[in-house]
Amino acid sequence: MSITMRDVARAANVSVATVSHVINDKPGARIGDDARRRVLDAVAELGYRPNALAKTLSQGGSRFIGLVADAIATTPFAGQIIHGAQDEAWRHGYVLLVANTEGNTAAENDAIAMMLEHQVRGILYSTWYHREIEVPALLKQTETVLVNCYSEDDAYPAVVPDEEQGGRTATEELIAAGHRRIAMVNTTTPSPAQTGRLAGYASALAAAGIDYDSSLVFEAESAQEGGYAIAPAVIASGAEGVFCHNDRVAMGLYDGLRERGLRIPQDMAVMGFDNQDVIAAHLRPPLSTVALPHYEIGAAGVRTLLGLETITGSDRLLVTCPPVVRASL
After folding, report:
1. I need a labelling partner for 323 at 20 to 30 A (CA). Which of 1, 27, 113, 126 fits?
2. pTM above 0.90, yes or no
């Protein structure tokens, strides 16, 4: 049975981070003599040895990059983050080690410790939707890039979708289709997507010389049921077109409009967001939307880790959300 850092930490009654500091003789690490002795005793008693492959790789530089994710490996469209990171890593001669933790803290710490044992070049830490996170302490031991998320103090480089640009692009597509009275159905959940997409909507209207009208901005649950429930209010507003927070909301709105005899796009144009292909491409008519660039976010995360993309200061690398125009405008 292979002995891991976690086994040593449990035997010595210390954290995995402390074990890593002692084994790697990390400069500047503040570790008491008693804790250091317990770790070394546990190492000797358990017969712990750093992974032989990692030792071999470390002599010439590791060719591994780690990716720790909360759920994206099991989320179809967000799984493109892994695809993009894997392709970009391979392009530069690296292999991607992927751990999907399903939000389990113990599993997450185990995964990070395992990657540290393999002396990875660095770790991408990713979430399945764009949000602020608390960065796991173990990530301080290696180069880390946050992917599709960011830390409160922006202490780590982060690669995220440009939500404001995406909202602006969605609204511009409706304007380009000839619409002036444009509603927005936003989410009720506080998030970068909620504030960013609304700001983009307002920006596009202003650039086109259209006054912002708060009575045309609605909030709904960010699911099909939310879009269906808000349909009567959107119709009553007299809107010619509507920008929905996501494709699921748009799908529900489709049902609500049809039940009331309205045609898409003849009576109301509809724009989504996310480009969930299983939804957007298969609605009738197919839904125009803005894509979340998950593949490019993953690829840009690897380039940032390797120093091929530069993020200055506390800035985040914003990745463009492109329009996908179909038949609903």
Report:
1. 126
2. no
